[in-house]
Amino acid sequence: MSAATFNDSRFPTISPWRGTTLKWFEELWQDSGMWQALSNSAMIAAGVLVIAVPIGVACALFLSTYRGGGKNFIYGLMLSPC
Asked: Contact at 8 Å (CB) between 23 and 9?
């Protein structure tokens, strides 16, 4: 895909090569939908960061100070995807 962005064809393809161009980057720069999607992604990433960092720090502090039994189970539970 990286090479196809520089091809001067109607569709993103490498073959046949129709010449080198930067017009697709200009099109991308002017696409308002792409900027809206980037904005949405940045807002979601910021929200996830605000939630995940305090939870991760709290879990790390808990595991570093916890001396009771079942520490491995609690660690595995914190790392589980569900």
From this structure: no
